Amino acid sequence: MEVNIYINAEHTGHLSKGNGKYAVTIESETSKGLATLQLYKGVLKTSRNRTALIACLDAFSHLKKPCFVNLYIDNTHVTETINQEWYKSWNLDTWTNKGKAVGNADLWKEFLEHYKKHKIKVICEGDTPYTSYMKTQIAHVNIEYKEDICQR
Length: 152
Known about the structure:
- The chain is an alpha/beta fold.
- It has one domain: Nucleotidyltransferase, domain 5 (2-Layer Sandwich), CATH 3.30.420.
- Helices cover 29% and strands 37% of the residues.
- The chain is built from 4 helices and 8 strands; from the N terminus they run E-E-E-H-E-H-E-E-H-E-H-E.
- It has helices at 48-60, 76-83, 105-117, 131-140, and strands spanning 2-12, 18-30, 33-46, 68-73, 96-97, 100-101, 119-124, 145-146.
- The strands form 2 sheets. The protein has a 6-stranded mixed beta sheet, sandwiched between helices. A two-stranded antiparallel sheet has the order 5-6.
- Strand 5 and strand 6 form a beta hairpin.
- Helix 1 runs parallel beside helix 3.
- It is globular and about 50 Å long.
């Protein structure tokens, strides 16, 4: 099964302690035609990259069986970490890179588990068929912000 995931994440305030919000559209072909699921959420006291990773994990949590995923996201950190295979230089036992802690290691650990389970192609794309709609929704939907509960 092939699934397209479109993510638009925004961040306001302080770089590492601001508020993030995101929109996710999950699209897949079913026997009844194209099906979509849309999510809109917010995260308090977080960073831009962390918001993007949380959005990815939220989307992946809706995939019930292994599948081929096209992940469209406009976050260069996420796309380059996967596409340039930066994660391969990390010490995954200690979650360090060149002696320093990997940023957002808790989220990357979970992301890479999904990366192993699914065949995920990450595409850095800020202009998708859903971008305009998702940005409008993020701006106008009353998003309930939650604490960053992903910290494990």
